[in-house]
Specification:
A: 5 helices; B: five-stranded mixed β-sheet; 22 helices; globular
């Protein structure tokens, strides 16, 4: 998880979200519904966005997990984080980590997305505050910065 | 303000809490855990109306891990018309019992072991049915209007002039009936609280709310405790929208913690969130309007029936909604009747656009209809009838300031292409038709009536290095009030935004504050922040004046420096003013001592006059006449925001409101089973809020009129974007296909049915 190896004893029914939050103290991923409908629990597993509230922890064995806490390098933020801050894309912030990770998965495979592709990539992340206007703008801006050689 | 150029206010600065949220380190209530903490679950009623004849918790209590079970036997504490736990249930989902256990699993298992014997009572789910004399009475012990079933006393009845006379003078009288549906807030963070008792008997309660002091009051009354023995702490809040102003579940959580002697966390599931968080009410509006041939109003009447559900939180909607009949348009005769009715359904309560959203749909839709039938363009109709500046608003007997109202309508119309597009009934791709529609909005902010005004309070403490600690009584629920207030303080004091720290609410520390409600926080608390900052600035100027040897009134402060207005190079750093005001000290440990009590201030503030925000919204939509599907192509939202303290935050408020309100117009409805009263769609799959891919193109137009009532000219804008959307979209549907839908939401089924019946 975020470049570290963790050994955790889990019950068979524990979800990855539960292990991340309760066992590893990584509370950036949120429980918004527990049914895979809101996307607040999104993390990356081997680079792909997954719903950690529906993923059994045991399935994560041997996989590479990235959570929001693993995105910045020390104090240096990922361009997506910078762009979300700068563009006012964060209001209550409860959906933010999931949204940023969905966006990262997109930019990792497509650094030049159209607005439609960004909307598609974020379509599983519900937000009640922003109307998605500024988050979409932030992702497009981060993509541009990364194309111009901003880090990662 | 005019004396110097603004350097912090008016700038789209990043929110001060954005960093911790972007890196996933903001600790919400749900992220907190205390040593030894237990988890609580609530048993909820499967019946809409029943008496609990017997409740046996002994099996649940014996389950390993279970530490406490509460039923009405111990917790029949009544506040208003609701009990913490009662021997009667009044809607499907009402609280029956509660369990605290060492794990959530044990708590859940224990719920199934609680044996309850119910006597099922007849139930009523529709407010008009519930007003019939034969309807089952849900609250026999509260004041009800005699012979009117569950109609709560009083009925609100007010207005101006004589509507009967007005109808006689009219050339045409239009009557109609509109209904609006239950809408769920859908905060991404479900309700949550953690209660912990000190050995001294003091309760600390961490919770996700938009009114910390209101929650403290509920806890104090529910637990029969002095308020100083209760401390409410509000970590970052995952959305509010009117949902989070305290619940009797808070008392329940504290009771469980008291009984077990251990901290208890009570987390709502998403399903509970949908069912129990006091939705926007189902409402019925009977309208009657008299007009002259030229479109002049002679009389306007509305009877509003507000479904309060099981408990009376929604009564204020019935009380206030008449403001939106009387305020925006000139009409000599207006009458409003507001009925608040109990039913065996989830309670209704505050929701963004409090009292304003449902009635605006009815009134604005009716205006669009009347304009059309008189052959007058709806925009012209509004321009003709809208209140003019200086006119007395009969709702509050205060002169109207309608600056900005016209500009919103004109600019919005221009942006959508109103004159080119309206009335074209444009065909696209065979079965699809396009149309444009409009509606206006007006709202509180902070109030329209003195009995609703709650002052704002702010306190500023100054550090020796010139940095600031700002304490306010209202909560940042994501809307950015902490940032906005920090900008106001920084501007007034002449420091930078990063010099100001705003702490989240801790009722032991922060000054008292009301709810985040009625678009009032910026107007009231923001005003208090500026007033407190002005006091501190005065203190600083008095000292600086002596140092610079000029009278204080010749000074200005900007960018951490105090200088002489006419000789800006003659100045002194604020930190130096503070240090030099302190007593000279030979020890590096004590240099700050005097600064701490020399500078600092507290202020309360109430707006000097009522100037509401005005807005106009325009929708362009496409109707598929084969499926009845409505697609919103574009939404133009023009709002008089007075002055945007932070453009990015203001736009964000309006953009978010549009997501909420397009959903209200088209897809969102908390549906109840008509025979059992059970909520049918308590999840995000079946209760559809808009996703990224559902959002249309959005144009936000900020009109800045520099309101004399608002801090730095600002108006409250948190709710405005929600108010006109549904009526504008319904009007656009009419423009596209010629049918007017009078029942929200505008589902494909309703549109197809209307098209068939046309």
């Amino acid at each position: 998880v975020n470049g570290e190896i963790h050994e955790v004893r889990v019950k068979p029914y524990w979800t990855l979200l539960r292990v991340l939050r309760n066992e590893l103290g990584l509370t950036g991923a949120k429980l918004g519904c527990g049914r895979g409908e809101c996307g607040a629990c999104t993390v990356l597993m081997d680079g792909k966005p997954i719903l950690s509230c529906l993923t059994l922890a045991a399935r994560a064995e041997g996989k590479k997990i990235v959570t929001i806490e693993g995105l910045a390098e020390g104090l240096k933020l990922h361009p997506l984080q910078e762009a979300f801050i700068k563009n006012g894309a964060i209001q209550c912030g409860f959906c933010t980590s999931g949204m940023i990770l969905s966006a990262k998965a997109l930019l990792d495979r497509n650094l030049n997305p159209t607005e439609e592709e960004v909307r598609e990539a974020l379509s599983g992340n519900l937000c009640r505050c922003t109307g998605y206007v500024k988050p979409v703008k932030a992702v497009l801006e981060a993509a541009e910065i990364m194309r111009k050689g901003g880090s990662r | 303000v005019s004396e110097k150029e603004l350097s912090v206010v008016g700038k789209p600065l990043p929110k001060i809490d954005a960093y911790e949220k972007a890196v996933g380190k903001a600790r919400y209530t749900v992220d907190l855990n205390l040593p030894g903490m237990l988890h609580a679950k609530i048993l909820r009623s499967p019946y809409a109306h029943a008496r609990i004849l017997k409740i046996d918790t002994s099996k649940a209590e014996r389950l390993p891990g279970v530490k406490a079970v509460l039923s009405h036997k111990e917790a029949r504490i009544i506040l208003g018309d609701e009990a913490v736990l009662d021997d009667k249930v009044r809607y499907v989902g009402d609280k029956v019992a509660a369990v605290a256990a060492t794990s959530e699993e044990a708590a859940e298992e224990a719920l199934e072991l609680i044996e309850v014997k119910y006597e099922v009572l007849p139930a009523v789910f529709d407010p008009e049915e519930a007003m019939k004399p034969e309807a089952p009475i849900i609250h026999p012990d509260v004041p009800l209007v005699k012979g009117k079933g569950n109609l709560r006393d009083p009925v609100f009845d007010y207005g101006v002039g004589d509507v009967e006379k007005g109808f006689k003078e009219a050339d045409y009288v239009f009557e109609n009936r509109y209904t609006t549906q239950r809408q769920a807030h859908c905060c991404l963070e479900p309700d949550v609280g953690i209660a912990s008792w000190d050995p001294s008997g003091k309760l600390t309660y961490w919770t996700s709310v938009q009114g910390a002091f209101i929650v403290r009051g509920i806890l104090a009354r529910g637990l029969n405790m002095p308020e100083n023995m209760i401390r409410v702490i509000v970590p970052p809040v995952g959305g509010g929208f009117g949902a989070k102003y305290g619940r009797l579940e808070d008392v329940l959580c504290a009771l469980l913690a008291k009984k077990t002697g251990r901290p208890v966390k009570l987390e709502c599931s998403r399903e509970e969130e949908f069912v129990t968080t006091r939705v926007r009410s189902y409402s019925v509006f009977w309208t009657k309007t008299g007009v002259k041939k030229d479109g002049t109003f002679t009389a306007r009447y509305v009877r509003a029936i507000i479904d309060m559900g099981a408990y009376a939180y929604g009564i204020y909607m019935a009380q206030r909604a008449g403001a939106w009949l009387i305020t925006p348009y000139s009409c000599p005769n207006c009458r409003y009747e507001g009925y608040a009715v109990y039913t065996n359904t989830p309670s209704s309560g505050a929701f963004r656009g409090f009292s304003s959203v449902p009635i605006h749909f009815a009134l604005e839709s009716e205006i669009n209809r009347i304009a059309e039938e008189l052959g007058i363009d709806p925009l012209e109709f509004r321009m003709k009838n809208r209140r003019k500046t200086g006119e007395i608003n009969p709702y509050n007997n205060v002169p109207i300031d309608a600056k900005g109202f016209d500009e919103c309508m004109v600019k919005g119309a221009e942006r959508i292409g109103w004159r080119r597009k309206r009335g074209r009934r444009e065909k696209v791709e065979g079965v699809k038709r396009r149309g444009v529609g409009m509606a206006i909005s007006v709202h509180f902010a902070p109030a329209l009536h003195p009995d609703m005004l709650v002052p704002g309070v702010a306190e500023i403490n100054v550090n020796a290095d010139g940095t600031i600690h700002l304490l306010i009584g209202v909560t940042d629920i994501g809307q950015g009030i902490n940032t906005t207030c920090a900008q106001i303080a920084a501007e007034e004091l002449g420091v930078r935004l990063e010099d100001v720290t705003v702490s989240n609410i801790d009722t032991d520390v922060n000054p008292w504050g009301w709810l985040v409600a009625a678009s009032s926080t910026l107007m009231q608390t923001g005003g208090a922040v500026r007033a407190a900052a002005a006091k501190v600035k005065k203190q600083l100027f008095e000292h600086a004046a002596k140092m610079l040897e000029v009278p204080p009134e010749e000074l200005e402060a900007k960018d951490r420096r105090i200088y002489v207005k006419k000789e800006s190079e003659r100045g002194i750093e604020i930190s130096d003013v503070i240090r030099q005001a302190g007593a000279p000290s030979i020890s590096p440990y004590f240099v700050d001592a005097k600064a701490a009590y020399t500078f600092g201030a507290k202020a309360t503030y109430t707006v000097p006059m009522y100037i509401p925000p005005w807005g106009a919204q325009f929708a362009e939509i496409e109707v598929d006449t084969e499926t009845g599907q409505v697609k919103v192509l574009r939404l133009v939202a023009a709002h008089d925001v007075g002055k945007a303290i932070n453009v990015s935050i203001v736009e964000g408020q309006i953009e978010g409101s549009l997501q909420n309100s397009i959903g209200y117009a088209l897809t969102e409805e908390l549906m109840l089973d008509k025979t059992t009263g059970q909520v049918l769609n308590p999840d995000f799959l079946d209760y559809k809020i808009l996703h990224t891919t559902d959002m249309p193109k959005i144009d936000v137009i900020l009109v800045e009129t520099n309101s004399p009532a608002g801090v730095f000219g600002a108006k409250g804008v948190g709710e405005m974007g929600h108010i006109p959307t549904a009526a504008a979209i319904a009007d656009a549907v009419y423009d596209a296909v010629g049918v007017r839908i009078k029942e929200l939401p505008l589902t494909p089924e309703k549109i197809l049915k209307a098209l068939r019946e046309r």
